[in-house]
Amino acid sequence: MELRGDFSSYSEILDLLQIVSIGKKTGEVLLNSDGESITIQLKDGKVINFKTNVPHLEYLKERVKKGEIPISEAIKFLLHYVAMWDRGRFSFIEKEVTDEPLGKVDTITVMMDFTKEQDEIGDNLKELFKKNPYFELSEEVSEPVTLEKEDWKLLSLISKGNNLVRTVFMGADSFKSGLERIYNFIEKDLIKQVKKEETKEEKVQETEATGTSFVNPEVFERIRELLVETMGPMGEFLIEETLEDMDITRLPVNMIDTFVENLVERIPDTCLIEGESCRERLKDEITLILRGGANES
Predict the structure, then answer these.
(1) How far is CA 252 from each of CA 43, 56, 133, 244, rounded to the nearest angstrom?
(2) pLDDT digits (tens, 9 = 90+) for 130-165
(3) I need a labelling partner for 193 at 20 to 30 A (CA). Which of 35, 98, 182, 278 fits?
(4) Domain enclosing residue 240, as ranges
């Protein structure tokens, strides 16, 4: 069983997960948008693990392993993140999942809990999350404030210069409670927004947690456009399929050549550009794009 397509609403992702769950399928649901990717792994229709090239989402796995949050909460975090995407692509490939399970959770139950939270979260909070501002601690508060353990953790992350998204995903007990607590901080003048653009150094620090230099995810959109322009619709999912076969979600700079070789091998021999093989024509161009999109070490 294999399903592919575009989505413009998270409800379409829920429909896909419902099909996989009810059918008790084993495989991977791959979601992509603007260079970001999330892979949800299922066995017999139940979620057992996930992979992503978004560092603060990948950190959710560490939180599950540490016992800070259950895997069900981590999956809801992922779904809330996807719900903020304006559009994207999905695929489901039925296959054996060999990664060690992070846990096991009923997919339908998680979907129902996520939907309930989505309905309860106000539009003001969703808009705040989309803006993803930075904050700093205020010098004075408008009224006495009692802080709980989760509050302290969120304030600590804010004080270290993290933006809203990283703060919520790295420190909140749930997506909903994290947004509500931060909004409460704003209302009580505990924190205030500051104008700050994420620097190149911050992006590198976040994406190089393992000390490895990676290609910026946004670069893949240029390659995807090139493949579709050259090959038509069949070029839409070549990038994800190649990364999946290499068992990676982010592309290390030292694996660019291997990635390109694997990618062009997927291009049919019948694909020609002015009589020349598409493989030969695209190989150098794709390599050049990737080399130009590598983070500095």
Answers:
(1) 28, 18, 29, 14
(2) 999 999 998 877 777 788 999 999 999 999 999 999
(3) 35
(4) 219-292
Residue 135's nearest CA partner among 157, 108, 115, 151 is: 157
132 and 95 co-located in one domain: no
Structure tokens given for 81: 């993140």
| Environment class of 249 (CB within 10 Å of its CB; exposed 0-12, middle 13-18, buried 19+) | buried
Which long-range CB contacts under 8 A does 224-228 form with residues at least 24 apart?
Answer: 226/282, 226/285, 226/286, 226/289, 227/282
Same structural domain, 113 and 146 = no
Q: Are residues 47 and 106 in the same domain?
A: yes
pLDDT digits (tens, 9 = 90+) for 208-250: 444 457 888 788 888 988 888 888 877 878 888 888 888 777 7
- What Å distances lie between residue 202 and 89, 130, 150, CA to CA? 28, 19, 24
**66-107 tens-digit pLDDT:** 999 999 999 999 999 999 998 888 989 899 988 899 999 999
> Has residue 276 been placed in a domain?
yes
End-to-end CA gap in the chain: 41
Q: Smallest Cα–Cα separation from 29: which of 245, 259, 238, 240?
A: 240
Confirm if 116 and 58 have CB atoms less than 8 A apart. no
